[in-house]
Design a protein that fits this description.
The structure holds 2 protein chains of 2 kinds.
Chain A lengths: L6 H54 L6 H22 L4 H20 L9 H12 L1 H19 L5 H18 L7 H31 L5 H44 L4
Helix pairs in contact in A: 1-2, 3-4, 3-5, 4-5, 4-6, 4-8, 5-6, 6-7, 7-8
Chain B lengths: L9 H18 L2 H19 L2 H24 L6 E5 L2 E4 H27 L2 H11 L1 H30 L9 H32 L17 H22 L5 E2 L5 E2 L4 H14 L1 H19 L1
Antiparallel strand pairs in B: 1-2, 3-4
Helix pairs in contact in B: 1-4, 1-8, 2-4, 2-9, 3-4, 5-6, 6-7, 8-9
Classes of the chains: A mainly alpha, B mainly alpha.
Chain lengths: 267, 295
Amino acid sequence: MNEHPEKPNIAIEKDERILRAERLRAREEKSDKRARLIRRIVSAVLILVFVPSAILVGMLEWNDRKYYIVSALIILFSMLPFFLMFEKRRPMARELTLIAVMTALGVAGRAAFYMLPHFKPIAAIVIITGVSLGSEAGFITGALTAFVSNMFFGQGPWTPWQMFALGLIGFLAGILFNDSIKTHLKLVLLCAFGVFATVGIYGQIMDTAFVFMAGQKVTREMFLAAYASGLPVNLVFALATVVFLVVLAKPLLNKLRRIKQKHGVFR
Amino acid sequence: MRDAFDNVNPVVAFVFFVFALLMPMLLLHPVMLGISLFCAVVWLFFIKGRGAFMYLVKFVIPITILTAILNPVFNHAGVTILFYIRDNPVTRESIIYGAASAVMLASVVTWFACFNHIFTSDKTVYLLGRFAPGLSLILSMSLRFVPLFTAQAKRIALAQRGAGMGTGGGNIIARAKSGLSIISSLITWSLESSVTTADSMRARGYGLHPRRSFANYRFDKRDALIGSALTLGIVATGLAAYLKLISVRYFPSIKLNEASPLFLAFCAVYALTLLIPVTMNLSEALKWRSLRSKI
């Protein structure tokens, strides 16, 4: 008996399959381009139309006093395009699970260091995610880490601000760095970014949010007082971020690079 | 104990919380703020029992006092000057405004405490799943991963101790080193297992069909009843604000709207709307009592 009666056909079938796959990919790329354009328009409309109109409504209708609501609306409108783009891209299952793992690591890290107030690895993990998996995954991981960890520690008027601040940190980390941290200089630069991200971005945003939450009639002195009183907390957070970046950045980036190469995700 | 509001459809519950949270911020009217804080605190006592008292004393009251002090110290607007602190005037308007802001923040924080109890993760995933299937999937997976990682970390620690690597004792540096090696293998394991999870999802047809959530909340008669009561309250509030029935000005001098009968009627509607969960709890308790006396 012949073991492979239709052996010659296999090669032809394979060729046809490859051709079909290529045709499919070309079609997908075409529709992908259109979808990307639509997404860009939607996010531009959101940011260019909704944000100014929120400010206008706040100024005209609410006598310029509802700072918290207007600012929270602005933050929500500027986060929406990121989420929309991510959803519309129809991310692969592997991307979803990797982001979920990084989010869970951030949340577990916040829970593990409960005995040291403000000394948390959250920002370091979000920065590493952004550096390794790109700015989009960095934003999503940052925002969701804030949201999920607040499911354990309590949601509040601070939630959208934390989501935006951490998401922005992950996004910027993805833009500024690529994932080869081989020299000491690069690690130092990453740590410097960590300090800027915690004190300059996270601290600044959260202290501003605190003033908006405390009273809608704000003065310059209130902001100065909030920044001054928030500085020690922010410095502790910055120290924690630097420590965790020094310890975690290299090994974690290596592990992530291995996963990316082995399984072909986030490339 | 389960709250009576737990079983309400998440969409209705979410609209209720948005209404309850936004109104104090938008109106900032002393009477409305008082009603809002009262309703939130009463509900919190239904939810947490004695724990509500501790929550209020430990968390809400400090925030309230801080806000109430912060405003008059930094805000010198207003015409009625009471006294001076280091050449800075402290005005009556500013003190009253600070008190109003403090009550506003207190009521928002208390509503959020109720929200945290009612809005469990499965409701969040259910609500998000319709608009953002990817994000809600990440959300539910990472919620699952947190206890999974904790359990795996314990297993790794046990294995490493069995291999004689870290004994869990020693000085800080030795302990940090053994902790780091646990974290390192935990991360490797979790990244690798995430890919396995993804492959398993793909094999089961992830992405072929719109996602459905595990919890399926029906929209029943009671939800319709609560929803229409809530809609009534929202429409009434919008109308009252539109007709300038409720208005307040804090600076330069304080000016409230007149206490017309219509305004009082609106206050009652507002209070009744915010008391929906408390009413439900009370009626459940009454039903339970009447049923028990029959047995």
